[in-house]
Amino acid sequence: MNDRTLLAGCGLEAGYGPSQVLFGLDLEIRAGEVVTLLGRNGMGKSTTIKTLIGGLPLRCGEVRFGGRPIHGLRADAIARLGVAVVPEGRQCFPNLTVREHLIAFADRRNDSAAPWTLERLYALFPRLRERAGHMGNELSGGEQQMLAIARALSTNPRLLILDEATEGLAPVIREEIWQCLAQLKAAGQTTLVVDKYVERLLRLADRHFILERGRIVWRGSSAELDADRALWQRYLGV
Ligand SMILES: Nc1ncnc2c1ncn2[C@@H]1O[C@H](COP(=O)(O)OP(=O)(O)OP(=O)(O)O)[C@@H](O)[C@H]1O
C-alpha cells in the first residue's frame, strides 16, 4: 500500500458453496490509475470483482477503500462510498429512456469537484444525446454499453469498474469505448478494467494484474507486459 492507494484487496479468499475460487488474492489500485485484471476464462476475474464490491462474501482477507475496511458491507453501501460497476451484460431497463437512466441514480451521487452532469455525460457520449428520448430496449448493443458506463459515471464514482465492457461489440464500437476510457483517464478517473484485448489495454492502462486459478501470478506496468510475450502465451492464451 502507498498513500495513493484507493482500493486494496489483501489475502482474498472466496467461492461458491463448496468450491473455492479465490486463494489469497492481493491487488491494489491507486488514485488516478487505470488497472486491468487479466486472465483466461474461468480464472476468477468476475469473482474478484464481486468480492471487492460486496456481491459475494469474503471467506478470508480484507478489502479497504479510501483506507477504510469495506468487507462485510452490503453492495449498495459500497456503491454509496463511490464504487460504480459496469457489469457484464449491460443491464439497461427496457422501459426507461436514456435520459431517465441517467437521472435515476441521483440519490447515489457522491460529492465531487467536477460532477458528472447530464451535459457532461452527453458531451462524452454524443450518441446518447441523440438517443435521449429512446427506451433502453430500442438501443443497439454499443449504445447500451455507453449508457451503462454513463449511468455508472452519473454517481460520480471514485472508482469505476468495467467487467468485460466491450464483450460482443463490433470492433469500431469497441474502439469508441476505449477512446472514452482514455478521456476518462485523462480526466483523472480511477478505473479497474476486466477485458481480453490485451494489446489495446497496453495503451490505455498503467498497470496490470494477471490472475491464474484464483491467484495473482504476475503484476507490472504496460511496458513490462509488452516486453514479455511469453507471459501472454502462458497465462492469457494469446
Ligand atoms: N455463481 C456461480 N456458482 C458457482 N460457480 C461459479 C459461479 N460463478 C462462477 N463460478 C465458477 O468460478 C470460477 C471462476 O469464474 P469467474 O466468472 O470468476 O471467472 P472469469 O475469470 O471472470 O471468467 P470469464 O471470463 O469466463 O467470466 C469458474 O470455475 C466458474 O465456473
From TrEMBL:
BP GO annotations: L-amino acid transport
Domain of life: Bacteria
Residues annotated as domain ABC transporter: 1-238
PROSITE patterns: ABC_TRANSPORTER_1, ABC_TRANSPORTER_2
Keyword annotations of the record: Amino-acid transport, ATP-binding, Cell membrane, Membrane, Nucleotide-binding, Transport
InterPro entries named in the record: AAA+_ATPase, ABC_transporter-like_ATP-bd, ABC_transporter-like_CS, BCAA_Transport_ATP-bd_LivF, P-loop_NTPase
Pfam families per record: ABC_tran
Record-level Gene Ontology MF annotations: ATP binding; ATP hydrolysis activity; branched-chain amino acid transmembrane transporter activity
Chain ranges passing through the membrane: none
Family to which the UniProt record says this protein belongs: Belongs to the ABC transporter superfamily.
Protein name as annotated: Hydroxybenzoate transport ATP-binding protein
